Each structure stands twice: as structure tokens, then as C-alpha cells.
Amino acid sequence: ESMDRVNYSVVSEFVLIGLSNSWEMNLFLFWFFLVFYVGIILGNLFIVFTVIIDSHLHSPMYFLLANLSLLDLGLSSTTVPKMISDLLTNCNVISFPKCMTQIFFIHVMGGVEMVLLIAMAYDRYTAICKPLHYLSVMSRKMCVSFVVAAWMVEIIHAVSQFVFVINLPFCGPDKVDSFYCDFPRIMKLACVDTYKLEFVIIANSGFISMATFFSLIISYIFILVTVWKRSSGDLSKAFVTLSAHITVVILFFMPCMFLYVWPFPTTSLDKYFFIVDFAITPVLNPAIYTLRNKDMRVAMKDWANRFQFCV
Ligand SMILES: *[C@@H]1O[C@H](CO)[C@@H](O)[C@H](O)[C@H]1NC(C)=O
């Protein structure tokens, strides 16, 4: 038995193949990720501080928005800083524990983000379709329960996949065909047949992604139909805002569908799709929720005025 263990635990680190091996492409990717990451930090922290400081924004919708911003920042921090430093130093090694930690946080934060998107769609649905019940339904207590439940469910989700993967034997292959670690790609390197595990991942991550995606699309359709039926003057404005939300939802979920719902083995194409989840939607969320929202714009002007006063 002990011989087996020794043989099996040969791999103590993985090599991340990254997105490209051309020098020019890597330089481009370096600047691309750097600029987007700075944008993610500034945009999302701006939202969090604005919501905390501005008492006009102390309502469920903005608390959820601030939570979403923190998660966007957290989710992209699981992969993008490492990606940037790998591109800079040309060293793509990740230790086994770091790889596992990365997977864990990606799944917890990605999952909480999904639940928050549902909470926000539900918030908008109640505000638009059931305005008279809004205050009683979206109470502060409801909001806190949403956030707490999201974290609990997603930690359980991540741990329940983890117990299957953490003890997999890795005995040789160590090249991860992506810029970060995730279950499907790590499983492909294990020295046992992981086909049962693939079902665990599909039934777990795959199911969560699909169920969340379809609930979101259905709630947005409800909202759109309600807005359309009441067609008043600012109909087109509501449509533009809602389509922006739907676009971001589709952008966010497509990569997850490809990786977790699609039959294995994964193509190496889907690693490019995940640039969207880690670098692009975390920038788009603050942009669409801020610029298309009157209260946030007022808060921004307020900030600008205060800043001028200080200077
Ligand atoms: C996240 O949501 C909870 C529950 O609504 C809220 O109490 C908390 O202030 C929010 N976090 C931020 C940073 O706004």
C-alpha cells in the first residue's frame, strides 16, 4: 500500500500552459489583463464605497449590488493576478495546494455570484411586477438571508466536489491546459479513470450553472413582458437596461455551460471563454449597474463635487 502512495504522489505542482506561447500575444495579454484588472479594482471598490457612504443608497438593491461588486473583485482575484505575474515572469508553475485553493475559491465565489444575480433579478422582478409588495418582500432580513444562504450553499457545493478530487492520484502528467486550475482540467491529469467523477461535476457544477441560468432568463422575460405590457414613455430605456443585464448574464454563464455541462473531455477552446468570466464581466457589471442607474449617477456627481471642494 505505502509503495502505491509514494508512486502516486509524484506530482506536487502543475504547469499552467496558459493562453498562448507567442511572445507578442503574451505581451498583449499582459497589458489586456493588467488594464482590465485595474478597471475591476477601481470600478468595484467605487461601488462598494459609494453604497456604504451614501445613505440614499442604503436599500436592498444597492446592498446586493455592493455584494456583487465585492464578489466580482474576489472572483477575478482568484486567477487574474497570478495570470499577470505568470506572463511577466514566464513562470507558470502552481503548487498542488495553491491549485486546490484556487479551485475552491473559484467555485465558492462563482457560485455566490450566481445566487446574487438571482437575488438581484428577483429584487427587480418584485420592484417592477409587484411594486405594492416590494417593501415587505425585499426586506433587510430577506436580503441578509439571501447573502448568508448563498455563501452556505456554495461552500457546501465546493466542498462536496472537493472531497472527490482532493485524493485523486497524480502520477505524471502535470500540464494544465489553461491559465488557472479547475476540476475538469485537473481530473484529466489523474492516473485513474475519472469518468464517474465527470458525472459528479456535471451533476453539481453543471446543474447549478444551468438551473441558475434558466431561472435568470425566465425572470428577465417576466420583467420584460411586464414592462412591455405597461408600455409608457420610457419603455425603450427599460429595454436597454434589461438587455444589458441579460447580455452580461449570457456572457457570464456561457463559459460555465461549456466547461461543466458539455460532455467531457473539454476542448482547449473553452479556456479562452473564461477570460470573459474573470476579466470582462467583472468590469461590465459595475459599468451597467452604475452608468445606467440614476441614483448611482447622482452619487457619482456628489463624489465629483466633494472632490473638487477638497482640491
Ligand atoms: C451585503 O449584503 C448584506 C445583506 O443585505 C448587507 O448587510 C451588506 O452591507 C452588504 N455588503 C456591502 C459591502 O454592502
Written description of the protein model:
- It is built from 11 helices and 3 strands.
- It has helices spanning 2-8, 23-53, 60-89, 96-129, 134-137, 140-165, 183-187, 195-229, 235-261, 270-291, 294-310, and strands at residues 13-16, 93-95, 175-176.
- Strands 2-1-3 form a 3-stranded mixed beta sheet.
- 2-acetamido-2-deoxy-beta-D-glucopyranose (NAG) binds at residues 48, 51, 63, 66-67, 70, 143-144, 147.
Key terms:
single chain, 311 residues, mainly alpha, Rhopdopsin 7-helix transmembrane proteins, 3-stranded mixed β-sheet, 11 helices, 3 strands, 77% helix, disordered N terminus, binds 2-acetamido-2-deoxy-beta-D-glucopyranose, disulfide bond, G protein-coupled receptor activity, olfactory receptor activity
